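Inputs:
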Amino acid sequence: MDVTLRELVGVIGGELSGDGSVVIKAVAGIREAGPGTVTFLANPRYEAFLKTTRASAIIVPRGTSHPTKPLVFADNPYLTFIKAVEFFVPNRNVQVPGIHPTAIIARTARIGSGVHIGPNVVIEDQTTICDGTSVLAGTYIGRGTEIGTGCLIYPNVTIREQITIGSRVIIHSGAVIGSDGFGFVRDGDVYRKVPQIGNVVIQDDVEVGANVTIDRATTGTTLIGKGTKIDNLVQIGHNVVVGDNCILVAQVGIGGSAQLGTGVTMAGQAGAAGHITIGDGATVGAQGGATKSIQAGMTVSGYPAREHTQANKIYASLLKLPDLLKKVAELGERLSKVEERTKD
Amino acid sequence: MDVTLRELVGVIGGELSGDGSVVIKAVAGIREAGPGTVTFLANPRYEAFLKTTRASAIIVPRGTSHPTKPLVFADNPYLTFIKAVEFFVPNRNVQVPGIHPTAIIARTARIGSGVHIGPNVVIEDQTTICDGTSVLAGTYIGRGTEIGTGCLIYPNVTIREQITIGSRVIIHSGAVIGSDGFGFVRDGDVYRKVPQIGNVVIQDDVEVGANVTIDRATTGTTLIGKGTKIDNLVQIGHNVVVGDNCILVAQVGIGGSAQLGTGVTMAGQAGAAGHITIGDGATVGAQGGATKSIQAGMTVSGYPAREHTQANKIYASLLKLPDLLKKVAELGERLSKVEERTKD
Amino acid sequence: MDVTLRELVGVIGGELSGDGSVVIKAVAGIREAGPGTVTFLANPRYEAFLKTTRASAIIVPRGTSHPTKPLVFADNPYLTFIKAVEFFVPNRNVQVPGIHPTAIIARTARIGSGVHIGPNVVIEDQTTICDGTSVLAGTYIGRGTEIGTGCLIYPNVTIREQITIGSRVIIHSGAVIGSDGFGFVRDGDVYRKVPQIGNVVIQDDVEVGANVTIDRATTGTTLIGKGTKIDNLVQIGHNVVVGDNCILVAQVGIGGSAQLGTGVTMAGQAGAAGHITIGDGATVGAQGGATKSIQAGMTVSGYPAREHTQANKIYASLLKLPDLLKKVAELGERLSKVEERTKD
């Protein structure tokens, strides 16, 4: 669809600066953009590409200037760019309602209207799939599980029995929701399995990445709060409570019964020990290991995780440690000489 | 099922203290327990909840007291609680024997009695599935693989060819058993694949978590010893030998040809380098990186992994390192002054 | 198939030293080898097994000697051994061409000759599967995806829409290719999803391990260069560029928009931050965390990742840190005494 930049700004918002008559046909990232595209600048890292981009127009923060190209000023250029993406690129993952003839759906399952169920999907007894939800090929949904409206469950997902999933939840391929918690009691030399009879509740607007694992609770509930986004290969142990609007980056692991507040961020490969609490708005840096509870608003990093500026100081000091050892040995020798010659 | 506490103790064991006539209808964790439930106290972390729990009875270690509630004394309260769980909660994962019409089973496969095979399961030639085993929806079992009695293989598992699995093994969804080991030889600038012609042997009573990967051996066997429990997203490289009754917590990675003794514990996100040995009863702390062999009985932590109390001392010392740098600089200046004024 | 060692050397190359008439029936690793097998020695770690191996012949580096057994000298013993493996062990994963009747293949899909498509495979519209490729049971291939010649896609893989895969690519079970990149923009208290409209390109001769996740680009392409080998449970973020002939060991994580050069090695559980560059031939040690760009040819380790010999010095120095603290305190006291008694 071809539009003028002026027409596009009418749809996506922002303030036009420069020639509104250029024709825009597509969106693109700032590095790969060509003529006829609109791009954006949000990350200062990419500022150098302002000069070299071949885009026909750029969505930018207010105050940005460009010698030749028309700009669109926006409070949040990335958000405005998303609107352009949504204008130009149809959502490829909107599914046509209907049930594939190879899907195996229990007679007691309740399927809403506008639902899409793909080939080889298995839906067990007493499940509920609400209006407008899509369940793609090869996905398994266990007995008694409920899925809200407008969800998108990608191919080859496994959702075990008695799970509750809210509305507009996205679950990527290979994710496993409701596997048994890792609970064993030592009985002499062997471990005896603790039955895992709890469930998992995933609230509205959560996104769960590919090959994520979320264990069911031993008793009670493993809870993922609304709006939380979980990246690929994340592990969430039994009875964990993750608050609303958290960000869990790829390969994060959260030990059993840990509790995360609202707006917590855990960067890639970070871990949280079982039973600890991470307060609202706290951040754990990449590969950080939170071994104890973290106060609200704090940023921690390293192993064991410590307040970030302190951790940084320590890591910088470490570079001087090998020299420090030599220096202290020299001081000792010099001091011995002084002691020797000042003896009474 | 409603029973009196006295009747329940008759079934699960332990010693009743207090009113045995209270009616128990269910089990629950100490925090979420309500009236009519029995709960337990095993982890000292939860002692504070003794006072606030709404449970009608509590299974506790001997010597515990409570002002109002009936108690059940037990040597191992968690084990006794498990018996209560098994009394009240039917095992939801016991499957009705039978083969789903959509399962695709090779004519040469040997299927025992009392076996459950779910929808869309694929079972290749020359496989054996022994009595009482359940293989759930969408799982793939490769040519020549043998699975013992009473196993539970959850949906969407992949078990490749020529694998041997013992009895009472549980394998969670998304696990991949017998993928090729990561073996390549450098040939000039490129890598040439080493055929992976070995197998995997999983002994009795092992549990394998969701999305775990266990690679087949290059030649010979990748072995998981009996009673070992493997949490989600663990990686086990080719030719690894894991002893009996080990505990491998989520996201652990074990490099090729490493050998773990009996009763080894590796906490979450820990790693073991290839070719090393970890002795019987040793423990690697969370996120620890075992770069060299670990003696039997030792507990190590950190990267590179060191004896745990030593590692703890080092991590505590680190907090003082930035100050130490300043202090040593000051000592140097003070010493220079003394040297100056004590020169002959 | 039984052959004399002399005949085998005629096939696999190398220089025979000793009795060429011994009969060889199979290949085996040096530890588990029995009579009638040929084994090899490549890793100096295993030199001790030269004396104890029960193999009938050993492929060794030139200059090796053995009191009794015939040897085969080779420039690269492992490569020569691979040829022996290929001679004795038929590739079990060569599939018979044909399409299983339960496969669900869109009418607009283009399927080449000699293609094997297993049970319950789902192939969507406008896909291309080129000659000689095998797609095994339960795998899903999304709309518009193209797969080259001679590929082997194991069971239960998910390849999303609009992905391009080269020739001779191997993808292991549970891998997910083309899941959405982890892109969200903060909009007040909540996160808004950034549509992920880019793709993934996997070039020739790549191997992708079990349960690996490779995210599609936000816009543009996530690229895996030719000959790169990816171990199990690796995460590759959106817009990452991995060069040719890289080695990514199990559980590695690469943040969005990071760029790896040619011949980069990342050892197990290592991580690379988003947006950084890792130069040609660089190596990141196991569990290392590359927080900043790494120059070509450099080896780094630890967190934050530093040049490897420097990191090793620091880790060795750390052992002396607790003592150093005491020593500096003592020096301070001794210095105070000297200062006291040398006061004017």
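DSSP finds five helices and 40 strands in chain B. Flag for discussion at group meeting.
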